[in-house]
Amino acid sequence: MGRNTKLKQFWLNKKKSIIQSSNPMLFWHLTFVKKYLFLRFLILFFVFLFFFFSMPSLAQDLLKNSGFEEGLVNNIPKYWGEEYYNSSLLPDRGGNVLKIINDSPKMSLGAQTIAIDWRKISKVTLSAWIKSENVVQGNEDWNQANIQLLFFDEKDVQVGGWPSVGAWTGSFGWKYVARNIIVPKGTVKAKVVFGLYDCAGTVYFDDIKLVPLPDQKNTDPYNFLENGGLEVWEKWAYGGSEDWAIINNNVKVGNGALRIRNSTPVWSFVSQSVSVDGRKAKKIKLSGYIKAKDVIPGVKPWQLARINIEFKDGKGKRLDGWPILEAFSGTFDWKFIENEFNVPKETRRIDVFAGLLECAGEAWFDEIKLIAFDNEGKKLQPGGIYVTDTKDWNEFIPLNESYKKTVSDVSFLLDSPAGKHGFLKVKNGHFYFEDGTRVRFWGTNIYAPSTFPEKHDAEIMAERLARSGCNLVRIHHIDAFWSNPNIFDQNYDDTQHLSKESFDKLDYLIYQLKRRGIYVFMDLLVDREFKKGDNVKDWQNVERGAKVTGFFDNRIIELQKKYAEQILTHKNPYTGLRYVDDPALVSVKLINEAMLFYFGTQFNISKHYLTDLDGMFNEWLLKRYKNRNNLDKTWTDKYGRKDLKQDEDPYRKNVQRADIPLKYQRSGAEKYEPSRLADTLKFYEELQVKYYKEMSEYLKKLGVKVPISGSNHWVNLYVDVKTNSSLDYIDRHRYWDHPQFGYGTQVVFENLSMLQNPVDALPNNFAFYNVSDIPFVVSEWNCCFPNEFRVEGPLVMAAYANLQDWDGVIQFSFNHAGWQAPMEDNFDVSAWPNVYSQLPAAALLFYRGDVAEARKSLNYPVSDSELYGLLDEDKMIAGNPYLPYILKTTINFKGKINSIPKDYVSKYHDKQNRIISSDTGELKLDYGKGIFTINSDRTEVAMGFMKNRIIQLNDFIVEPENEFCSIAFSVLNDKLKFKKIDGGTILVTVAAKIENKNQEYNESKTQLANVGDAPLLTEGVEAKITFKGVLPRRISALDINGDIIKTIPLKGRSFYMDASDKAFFYEMIF
Which of 41, 271, 430, 765 is the most exposed place for a label (fewest CB within 10 A)? Predict the structure, then answer.
């Protein structure tokens, strides 16, 4: 019997007792005052009863037969399913409880579906009592006992993911579990599902309840943090351990609290960005409640559970370190913490963090407050939300694509079918096909599960990509444990059997790409998690994707080889070729985003593998130095200071590897042991190169005939780049405004434009790590949602890639066959019409070389001290962050130097006005105003913050009225240029900002207050365009598909773009 039933009965009995004891005759004997007080008591009592029975937690359970007191129907609890699921009722907890038992792994689930309107109920609490006996996890992580709440829209499409209260394995007694959950927009019904999810064991359930949760307004109007009480999961971002939840039992204040549990020492934090202006706020008071259980400090003294803050200026730069409210370890019950901090004047926002910093244990957080005070000590009120004025924007409701040839279709740039020129080779530092044709790749990533589309969707995806000018797709994440499906057959307890169904879908997608002239780049080890049947030692604790152990553990390397053979020697039934025999496959990647030099951030590596690595390091030292005396002598500097400790001896295998924190991690207080550090880095270097060569040779034995690359980390270190230069080309990753502290809509972002921040912008950072004499590829880049200025990405990257003469630029990612709304994915260009529309113009520029290679180049020799000293990530070449905007930059590890004249840079960099130009004269970046222009014979671009400005291009005068927009002019005819355009056509590509309908930001526009809903809203471009040369015969406004919307009239030598045109392109026929 449920708790609420007992409580109600208790109060009903109380009520009856009171009424019965109220003798009417006795009443008249009371004094007037006593009569008054007695009547007042009765009134108040009945008012109490009314509110008691109307309380949501007691009277508004949305489920029927929550406590299983209504018995069975066909051996199934009433209202809880139609098919038997190994269940029975037992007496326990004062009534009935439900028992489910599986002798072997199977799906034994009860379920109840209810109607629920998201417009009336925004949040719910799912709760239950549960007991477990010997529940053993099945083949997958989710194969455990669990209770889930699934939501569906009016089309019966599941929305909102897979919220759950569990999952559980093992044995434990009765315990109460609960979670507060947001009802997704569009929900019309919900299904509660519970039981054993394809696993064995016995589990008991009672009082499964689903109760509406009242909206909790911010009880303190001066608290800058929204949902500081952590009542439900909203307004915060999260990154880290998967074992975390908003709980509603044993909380300190209100209905909820945050719990985070780290089984291994990883970075696990919630964060929220709030607007605080340092010109107004003098200090802040930060407070909250914390609780801890078995929190064990990490290897560094600062690796503790904590609440801390970061002050940020208007460009997102951190000020004044990492002020800490409280750092803690151990075990203790709820306690209140509070402190005050002075606010730097440059502050424009404060990021608040709560979690576990690379330490293990369990921590709880509740009622976190940030109160700001002005110079007089008065409290400041939060500014609220920012809503863009979109009243004149257009709803994006795309028409069905007919895929007929239109002026925006640049598939003619592709040379189909892919592979017709033979296998890809490396020659003279670039990519060439066997027949001598040089090729450069402008492409995208498709990652799982989008790599396994239905056949019709595969055809549409391939067609959309071809029309946009994409000539390469990187097949990514097909081994990811989190993808459903992935490439593995889930019927096996290992990752050594591949799914025929998944492979068939992947084969067909690749076939469709090949038909259209789109090449394929195949990743191998990305995000694989091993299973028991893989016979990997300590398999449960191998880091995801084996980003460290994958370099040196023999069993894991053996499994990588087997997987490579299964993928690459597989015969595609649609092409009739094995992948190793198909020249449409142009590259193979060994291991994604991995390097041993990132060890300073990896605190969750299995101790088993750390012991193995220590042994290998000591063996390496003996091989290098022969004995302890030689090692000691080498590790002693000229002043007699020793790095080798007295009790360390490589024969005893106890010489420790150096800690290698990155520059941003160092406090300056670390002990510096240069010899130990240098040898540790050299050991990692040799180990990494050994792995690369072993795997590369194995792939060649399988028949791979195309370039192979090692890895592609986003953190650039000279020593890592050097190891990668031992293979066929360099590959790097980097994003502009990558979401912070998680993915999706509840993230922190900077919302800055690259055009105003050239030092940190993408082209600049990539250019510092281009190794001379081998090809350079960017296999992941993007300007990420929710950043407002994403439209700047494609043309900026294409232009500077040409200036630097890079060989491949591959955006991440393209996930869908059709348009999606609302926007929620941080990377999916297939859902962003204002960015997708830029791809044809960028492809034209890139393939044709419309921007010329720089006239001068600087080849920088990396020294040994830069390779083997303190790690200095993302180091700029020659100390000048602006060089890649002017000339070509490369590095080398052979001591070569190619210098430039001393005053060469100053010719092209106007520091006073903050304008920098390429030495070709075609590119100009006015980073003071945030305006970028291209002036070449066949592409001209005006982009940036151009409102009320007159932009002079070589052949056009552009006068935009938008705050930020991009206008690109592209000559479509092969042999024509702007100066000789008679008989030709110019494609004009226009785009500004885009948002979801009802999208809202926090005041500083660094978090979404509301992601919004469909449809998308696009800001139309408004501008006056004046012709300096010959006038066009006709101008037409075009939609996203390139179809004509209407004809635009000329007015003298000008025409006007208007938001009402709803145009993404204009066609100008001369």
Answer: 41
Which residues in 375-390 are b (16+ Cβ under 10 Å) and which e?
eeeeebebeeeeeeeb
- Predicted pLDDT of residue 25: 36
Structural tokens at position 725: 């230069």
Phi, psi (degrees; rounded to nearest 5) at 363: -135, 145
Give the least confident one: 138-142, 389-393, 903-907: 138-142
Instruction: Write the pLDDT tens digit of every residue in 410-424.
Output: 999 999 999 999 999
Q: What's the gap between Cα 401 and its chain centre?
A: 30
- Mean of pLDDT over the chain: 92
Q: How many helices (H) and strands (E) does the chain have?
A: 16, 53
516 within domain boundaries: no
Q: What is the pLDDT of residues 782-810, one digit of tens each?
A: 999 999 999 999 999 999 999 999 999 99
CB 425 within 8 A of CB 472: no
Tokens of 942: 């005006």
Written as six digits, the tokens of 994 are 């885009």
Same domain, 323 and 196: no
Share of the chain above pLDDT 70, in %: 94
Handedness of CA 162, 166, 170, 171 (dihedral sign): negative
Q: Is 579 helix (H, G, I), strand (E, B) or coil?
A: helix
Q: What is the rounded distance in angstroms from the CA atom of residue 704 to the CA atom of residue 583?
A: 10
Instruction: Tell me how far apart the alpha carbons of residues 422 and 908 are, in angstroms, rounded to a whole number.
Output: 42
Single-letter amino acid, residue 723: T
For the CA atoms of 354, 355, 357, 363, what is the dihedral angle to 10 degrees? 140
Return the percentage of the chain with pLDDT > 90, whole number: 81
Least confident of 307-311, 473-477, 895-899, 989-993: 895-899
Q: Do residues 191 and 320 both lie within one domain?
A: no
Q: Are residues 78 and 9 in the same domain?
A: no
3-class DSSP string for 773-811: CCCEEEEEEEECCCCCCHHHHHHHHHHHHHHHCCCEEEE
Q: Are residues 245 and 378 in the same domain?
A: yes
Is it the case that residue 716 has pLDDT exceeding 60? yes
* Strand extents, DSSP E, 526-584: 571-572, 577-578
Please indicate, yes or no, whether residues 123 and 81 belong to a single structural domain of this protein.
Answer: yes
Q: From CA 491, how far away is CA 925, in angstroms rounded?
A: 56
For residue 917, give its domain range: 908-1069
With a CB cutoff of 8 Å and minimum separation 6, the contacts of 253 are 229, 289, 366, 367
Asked if the model's pLDDT at residue 53 lies above 70, the reply is no
Q: How many domains does the chain have?
A: 5
632 φ, ψ (degrees, to nearest 5): -60, -40
User: Do strands 430-433 and 424-427 pair parallel, antiparallel, or not at all (unpaired)?
Assistant: antiparallel
CA 1002 remoteness from chain centre: 20
- Rounded to a whole number, what is the largest CA-CA distance in the chain? 115
CB 756 within 8 A of CB 804: no
- CA torsion 78-83-88-89 (nearest 10°) is -10
Q: 276 and 154 share a domain?
A: no
The predicted structure's pLDDT at residue 215: 67
Whether residue 1015 is preceded by a cis peptide bond, meaning omega within 30 degrees of 0, is yes
pLDDT, average across residues 119-130: 92
CA distances from 93 to 71, 138, 722 (A): 16, 29, 65
> What are the structure tokens assigned to 791, written together?
């439209």
Instruction: Please give the Cα distance from 827 to 823 (Å, whole number).
Output: 10
Torsion of CA 1001, 1003, 1005, 1008, to 10 degrees: -30
